[in-house]
Amino acid sequence: MIRLEKVSKSYRTSTRPALDQVTVDVGKGEFVFLIGPSGSGKSTFLRLLLREDVPSKGKVYVSNFDITRMSRRRVPRLRQTIGCVFQDFRLLPNRTAYENVAFALEVIGKPRSVVKQQVPQILDLVGLTKKAGNLPNELSGGEQQRVSIARAFANRPLILLADEPTGNLDPANSAGIMRLLDRINRTGTTVVMCTHDYGIVDLMRRRVVELNRGVLIRDEAQGAYATGPVPVVQENQA
Amino acid sequence: MALHIGYVTRETAVSLKRNLLMTLAGILTVAVSLFLFGGVLLLSRMVDHGTARWKNGVELEIFLCSKSTAEPDSPKPACRAEASEGQIAAVRTELEQSPDVRRFRFFSKEDAFNEAKRIFAGDPELLSNIDPEGLPVSFRVAPKKAELTEKVAAHFNSRFNDGIDTVLTAKEQVRRLLAGIRWIRGLFFAIAGVLLASSLFLIVNTIRLATFARRREIQVMKLVGATNWFIRVPFMCEGLIQGAIGAGLAFGGVYALRVILSDLVDRSKNLFSAFYVTGGDAIAIGVLIVAVGATVGAMGSAIGLRRFLDA
């Protein structure tokens, strides 16, 4: 589903590469935590998957797309197969919760009737039926994040990328968000989640990929995050 | 990628309302510049009509006797009969041999009628009263130099026995007026061009401000997988509407100007009677103005957006 082959990415502003020879393979339906301190390359990792950037070296494959060789015109197609959730929610501020979710469907050209039918279902899934008519600034952080997850999941993406989705939330809300992501994962959607919240990682016991200064230092199939040094395990060599 | 009409109208309406002041500014600039542009076009149409016969250096027109000018029993010197084929040929030979004539063109009855049809296109009643057979044939003559006009005119004028009725020359005042109008027309065109360009910039700027305020929104749209066109079309509709409304106002102005000008021309009877604009001219100019306005608006939007979409 997602494959990075010896991917390096350097930015002009920095001498140290943001990613250095990273190879990761994520299968369909996997749930992967991407962890590491700030500046370790997590964001760059996600940016490459969305083709907000192209790698300096190496190959990136997402679903059936070859990121390194695709034309600009195909980028929207790629993004339509990926759902995104961010720490700062990134909702459209002038649209209600309902409209935000509907937008994701309008973008892929779904007819009105389908939109009308699907949006309430998705809002129900995230438990926001009663807040459908509210604007983002009328919602709490947890609610906004749930709208953003609803939007990401609206067009049934193959992949869901979450960039510190719990970063701005209290533990109770975080737990709610994690339950949602888990549910989405169970529908067969591949989930990649960046996080600093090691408590969540410990709790969920899923595959953990750790980056440090752009280098892959850990790729563990069974999560079980524990503090302290852990030997690098590279599995799934493609 | 399907674009829904409902989506586009909704987006456009919301955006127009949210930037009301800038929207109005854009509309007004388009209106003013297109009004000037249209006014100049109108003026030049008038000048074209009024000077059609004096084009290409034609300075005088020799009218031969026609059925309607012939007065067989008149005691005063006058045409006795319609000019014969022989008389027409004789005038032609004379013009060909004259050292003062650069070139000339023969105008048959049919040509004259066609011209009348063009000039009085807006006045079918008058047109139906014209008898093509009663129209005079004529020669339109360009002398070697403008100063020779009077000499050539005097040579041909009122030679009734040779079948020549009168000679019409471009009056000095008319000539000077034409030069003046041409100059003013050039000036107006330049001003209108500058204003048109500035309205384009203003629309670009309006849209850019609108997009700058919404650049995060646009980023999000792109993340969700919106194509550039999906984002662009509502903005372009916005510009198009601004341009079209501005152009509509300008057209109203131009139409009013036409009414005023026609009125002036009517009152000054003789001198300017050839300077007229038909309703058809005004409509044609209106269509052109609206097309230009809408294009400027839509293009301005596309340019204004470019920076945000290419990221």
Write up what this structure looks like:
- The complex is a heterodimer of chains A (238) and B (311).
- Chain A has 238 residues and is an alpha/beta fold.
- Chain A has helices spanning 42-49, 75-80, 97-107, 112-125, 141-154, 171-186, 198-204, and strands at residues 2-9, 19-26, 31-35, 57-62, 65-66, 82-86, 159-163, 190-195, 207-212, 215-220.
- Chain A has a six-stranded mixed β-sheet, with helices on both faces. A four-stranded antiparallel β-sheet of chain A has the order 2-1-4-5, with helices on one face.
- In chain A, helix 4 crosses helix 5.
- The longest helix of chain A is centred in the C-terminal third of the chain and has 16 residues, at 171-186.
- Chain A starts with a strand and ends in an 18-residue tail after the last strand.
- With 311 residues, chain B is an alpha+beta fold.
- Chain B folds into two domains: 5-52 and 174-309, no CATH class; 59-169, Alpha-Beta Plaits.
- Chain B has ten helices and four strands, in the order ααβαβααβαβαααα.
- Chain B has helices at 5-18, 20-51, 85-97, 109-119, 124-128, 149-156, 172-213, 215-224, 228-267, 279-309, and strands at residues 60-64, 101-107, 138-143, 164-169.
- The longest helix of chain B has 42 residues, at 172-213.
- The model of chain B has no long low-confidence stretch (mean pLDDT 78).
- The interface between A and B is medium-sized, with 24 and 20 residues.
